[in-house]
Inverse folding.
């Protein structure tokens, strides 16, 4: 349970880093790599691609991709089980 909320805090921090202007070219591949390591399997790979595109395309930085992935994993997906 504790690890789940540590991942939430980390996700918020990583999304905040993504809001920093002018680091997009550096941050896009780094965020994709981190996303693929935080969330394993097919959903992690899909999220990594989305994270890369979101960071690489100008003016999409406001989307909190890591936090949305956490919500999908621990709130939405866990309710289906």
């Amino acid at each position: 349970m504790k690890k789940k909320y540590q991942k939430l805090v980390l996700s918020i921090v990583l999304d905040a880093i993504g809001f920093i202007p002018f680091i997009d070219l550096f941050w896009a591949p780094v965020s994709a790599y981190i996303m693929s390591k935080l969330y394993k399997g097919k959903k992690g790979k899909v999220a990594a691609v989305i994270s890369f595109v979101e960071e690489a395309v100008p003016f999409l930085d406001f989307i909190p991709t890591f936090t949305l992935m956490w919500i999908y994993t621990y709130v939405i997906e866990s309710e289906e089980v």
Q: What stands out?
A: The chain has one domain: 2-76. The radius of gyration is 12 Å.
